[in-house]
Amino acid sequence: MGQRIVQVDAFTNRPYAGNPAAVCVLPRGHAADPAWMQALAREMNLSETAFVTPAGDAFQLRWFTPTVEVDLCGHATLASAHVLWEDGILPADRQARFDTLSGRLTADRRDGWIEMDFPAVPTTPTTPPSDLLEALGVRAEYVGKNRMDYFVAVASEDQVRTIQPDHTRLRRLPVRGVIVTAPASPGGEFDFVSRFFAPGSGVDEDPATGSAHCALAPYWGARLGKTAMTGFQASPRGGIVRVRLAGDRVILGGQAVTVLRGELA
Question: Which domains does the chain carry?
Answer without folding.
Answer: 4-115+253-263 (3.10.310.10), 124-246 (3.10.310.10)
